[in-house]
Write a sequence for this structure.
């Protein structure tokens, strides 16, 4: 079967809309005359009515066309369409009134007809469009899903809950039918939102499930209500009710995500951390119309950097990544989000200095976020050569290029493992911090070099959370190295948002640390993940202690004793100042690494690494 050309379908829709709008406007003007003259129209006025039709209807249709009402689909009708219809007929009627006063009431319809036509025209087109939308949403989209739809209770009768219900009612194909609202605000009980009643609070979930035969609860609660989310999730799980969560209001309001794109409750939703408030305007001012380069753009931190930076309208966003598979994924995601015109996906290894020089020369970045790194602690412990080469030499190459091409700001992503390191990864990150700081003292330097330290990021590549999830899915055991191991945790968007905030605060030479909240025991994290998956820890699923791995600490730190700590404009960010090391000595070290790196065994290399990072306590393999 041959498909009709796109232009033909467009023309067909245009003429269909022209016919429908003409009928509505003609009907409205005719009825306005009948109402004005009590349905007995004098013969001379009938002639006037025909004359008005000849020129006024085309004028109204022209205004509707100018306000974009011939481009959309009839059954897709929302408030912006109503505003445009209202504006078009307001201009048309105002023009008629102006002509009435200009010509003393001659050649144009009476004022009563003008007013009646104005109201009737808006009503007729709006009612027609709304009726088509209701037919599409309530009948066409629900025919095959009426009997199989899950009965859903929405917990949270606020803006997010209202948006979710509207989305679910429109998209019946999702197979979810909102039945009731539950809300902690008892004043809302008895009210209706989009026809769905608010019947009570979530505290008595068992009785509500039995009364309304609920299959699922969807939590439309703010991210700050972590303890409430946890309590409701536990209650739902005990009653064998599936609990899911709505995306954040920020994502819904920005248009990036539909409210109906619900997801399972995750660990980060119940951690109990206060959400970070960012100074978005300063971040936007920093990035707007700038050329921004991100290394490691395909990684968990790098990709989130790209997402948040792209939303701040830079002029260019250069994605540098060695893995073309990871680069392709983030490139396609950003294209789907509408950023095709500003992103440049570049396959490159940061250790390839000629290639990186070419990239800096071609794109002239104003701001560089350096997130590329080898960061898997146990793996790097047995391959210190690769950790030093990538984390130290890579940073050295990038900082020198940043200075050469007068980059405005260079932000290095570091880690809490760089403090008094006990593993190769942490020691190399500390060396990279020292390299970054040393460039600040170069003669004629025009770049603000800075570093940002933070702890474990939930869900990032190589973090403990994905490992635990995989072990839980396999039925256990969940392996924990030591019952007393504690770590700081942040979500990926939270950590990246604070990195961008740090970039607005730096004057050069600083290391910023993020307020990570209270550290958590890894075993407690394992227990919570097991509970979220419907298991009772150490009853349904085993937690097994396997001993500390080489280079692993019981507790992580965030700063050295010699570092001077000062506050910043943001309550969750601290600034550390210390005396930078001489750049010439750093370059001598880099030269040694380039020339003699593979002349040493792994153990000897760790000892040599200790010469440059004295606080490093290496694990020596016997």
């Amino acid at each position: 079967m041959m498909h009709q050309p796109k232009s033909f379908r467009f023309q067909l829709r245009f003429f269909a809309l022209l016919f429908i709008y003409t009928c509505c406007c003609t009907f409205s003007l005719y009825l306005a005359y009948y109402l004005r003259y009590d349905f007995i129209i004098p013969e001379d006025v009938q002639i006037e009515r025909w004359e008005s039709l000849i020129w006024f209807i085309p004028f109204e249709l022209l205004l509707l066309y100018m306000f974009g009402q011939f481009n959309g689909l009839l059954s897709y009708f929302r408030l912006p369409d109503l505003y445009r219809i209202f504006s078009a007929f307001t201009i048309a009627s105002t023009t008629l009134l102006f002509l009435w006063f200009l010509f003393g009431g001659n050649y144009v319809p009476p004022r009563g007809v003008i007013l009646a036509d104005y109201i009737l025209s808006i009503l007729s087109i709006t009612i027609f469009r709304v009726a088509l939308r209701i037919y599409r949403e309530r009948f066409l989209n629900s025919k095959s899903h009426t009997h199989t739809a899950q009965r859903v209770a929405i917990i949270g009768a606020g803006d997010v809950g209202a948006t979710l219900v509207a989305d679910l009612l429109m998209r019946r194909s999702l197979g979810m039918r909102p039945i009731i609202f539950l809300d902690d605000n008892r004043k809302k009980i008895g009210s209706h939102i989009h026809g769905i009643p608010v019947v009570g609070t979530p505290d008595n979930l068992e009785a509500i499930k039995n009364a309304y035969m609920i299959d699922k609860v969807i939590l439309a609660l703010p991210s700050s209500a972590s303890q409430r989310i946890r309590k409701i999730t536990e209650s739902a799980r005990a009653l064998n009710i599936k609990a899911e969560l709505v995306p954040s209001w920020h994502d819904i309001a920005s248009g990036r995500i539909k409210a109906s794109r619900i997801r399972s409750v995750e660990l980060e939703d119940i951690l109990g951390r206060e959400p970070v408030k960012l100074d978005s305007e300063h971040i936007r001012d920093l990035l707007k119309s700038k050329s921004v380069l991100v290394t490691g753009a395909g990684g968990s931190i790098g990709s989130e950097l790209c997402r948040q930076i792209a939303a701040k309208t830079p002029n260019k966003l250069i994605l540098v990544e060695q893995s073309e598979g990871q680069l392709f994924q983030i490139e396609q995601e950003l294209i789907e989000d509408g950023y095709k015109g500003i992103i440049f996906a570049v396959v490159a290894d940061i250790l390839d200095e000629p290639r990186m020089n070419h990239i800096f020369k071609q794109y002239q970045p104003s701001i560089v976020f350096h997130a590329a790194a080898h960061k898997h602690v146990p793996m790097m412990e047995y391959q210190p050569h690769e950790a030093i080469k990538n984390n130290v030499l890579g940073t050295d190459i990038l900082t020198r290029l940043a200075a050469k091409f007068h980059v405005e700001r260079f932000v290095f992503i570091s880690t809490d493992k760089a403090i008094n390191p006990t593993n190769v990864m942490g020691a190399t990150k500390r060396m990279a911090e020292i390299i970054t700081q040393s460039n600040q003292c170069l003669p004629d330097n025009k770049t603000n070099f800075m570093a940002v330290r933070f702890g474990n990021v939930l869900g990032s590549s190589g973090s403990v959370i994905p490992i635990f999830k995989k072990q839980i899915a396999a039925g256990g055991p969940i392996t924990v190295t030591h019952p007393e191991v504690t770590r700081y945790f942040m979500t990926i968007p939270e950590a990246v948002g604070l990195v961008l905030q740090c970039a607005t605060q730096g004057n050069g030479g600083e290391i910023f640390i993020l307020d990570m909240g209270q550290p958590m025991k890894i075993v407690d994290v394992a227990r919570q993940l097991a509970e979220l998956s419907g298991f009772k820890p150490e009853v349904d699923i085993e937690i097994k202690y396997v001993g500390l791995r080489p280079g692993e600490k019981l507790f992580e730190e965030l700063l050295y004793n010699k570092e001077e700590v000062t506050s910043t404009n943001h309550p969750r960010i601290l600034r550390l100042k210390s005396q930078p090391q001489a750049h010439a000595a750093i370059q001598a070290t880099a030269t040694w690494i380039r020339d003699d790196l593979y002349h040493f065994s792994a153990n000897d290399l760790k000892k040599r690494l200790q010469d440059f990072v004295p606080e490093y306590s290496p694990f020596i393999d016997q």
